[in-house]
C-alpha cells in the first residue's frame, strides 16, 4: 500500500512537467517518471560549489586556511592533508547527539590505541556554521566543551570544534579529504551539507 504522504505528493505533482530536486538521484523518492525529474547540486554556486573537482593547490590553500582558523581559536590543528580525521558536520541544536558521538570517538580512540599502539589515531573535527554566541546555541556549545574537558581531557589535542563560514570550497576540501563523515538525520529533511557530501562521495558511502 502506498503511504498517504506519497499519494499526496503524486496528486500535487500530476500537472508538473518537470521537477528539479537537490536530493541525489539515489536518495530521491521515485515520485515522478525519470524523464520528468532533474537533479542539481545543492551548492549555492552551481559552477564552483561543493562538488567541484580539486587540484593539489586547492587542497593546500584551503587546508592552510582551515588550520589558521583553528589556530586563532586556540584549537588543535591537523597536518593537512596528511593526517587523517573524522569530520562531524554539526548543527549545534538540542538533542543532536554530538556528546554521544564524542563518547563513541573516545571508545574508538582507546580501542585503536590498544590494538595498534604505533599507528596514529584519526583526529575528530566538529565543524559548524552556526554562531556559538547565539543565545539559543551557547548552552549547547558550552555543554559539549565541558563534556570534553570533564570526561576525555586526554584527547584534548585530538578533538577540535570550530565555527566555519559557509564557504563552499573550504567545506569541499574538508569533505574531500575526510576519512569518514558523520551527519545526524534532520527531522525536517536531509541537510544541505549532507546532500553535498553524497554528491561528492556517491550515495553508497553515506547510507
UniProtKB/TrEMBL annotation:
<dbReference type="InterPro" id="IPR052078">
    <property type="entry name" value="Trehalose_Metab_GTase"/>
</dbReference>
<protein>
    <recommendedName>
        <fullName>HNH nuclease domain-containing protein</fullName>
    </recommendedName>
</protein>
Amino acid at each position: 500500500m502506498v503511504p498517504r504522504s506519497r499519494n499526496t505528493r503524486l496528486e500535487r505533482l500530476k500537472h508538473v512537467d518537470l521537477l528539479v530536486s537537490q536530493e541525489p538521484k539515489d536518495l530521491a523518492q521515485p515520485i515522478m517518471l525519470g524523464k520528468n525529474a532533474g537533479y542539481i547540486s545543492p551548492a549555492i554556486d552551481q559552477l564552483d560549489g561543493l562538488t567541484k573537482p580539486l587540484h593539489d593547490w586547492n587542497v593546500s590553500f584551503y587546508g592552510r586556511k582551515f588550520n589558521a582558523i583553528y589556530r586563532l581559536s586556540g584549537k588543535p590543528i591537523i597536518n593537512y592533508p596528511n593526517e587523517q580525521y573524522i569530520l562531524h558536520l554539526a548543527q549545534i541544536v538540542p538533542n543532536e547527539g554530538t556528546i554521544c558521538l564524542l563518547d563513541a570517538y573516545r571508545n574508538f580512540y582507546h580501542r585503536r590505541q590498544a590494538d595498534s599502539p604505533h599507528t596514529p589515531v584519526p583526529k575528530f573535527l566538529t565543524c559548524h556554521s552556526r554562531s556559538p554566541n547565539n543565545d539559543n546555541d551557547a548552552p549547547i556549545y558550552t555543554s559539549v566543551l565541558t563534556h570534553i574537558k570533564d570526561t576525555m581531557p586526554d584527547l584534548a589535542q585530538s578533538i577540535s570544534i570550530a565555527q566555519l563560514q559557509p564557504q563552499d570550497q573550504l567545506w569541499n576540501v574538508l569533505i574531500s579529504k575526510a576519512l569518514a563523515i558523520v551527519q545526524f538525520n534532520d527531522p525536517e529533511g536531509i541537510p544541505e551539507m549532507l546532500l553535498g557530501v553524497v554528491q561528492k562521495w556517491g550515495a553508497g558511502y553515506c547510507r
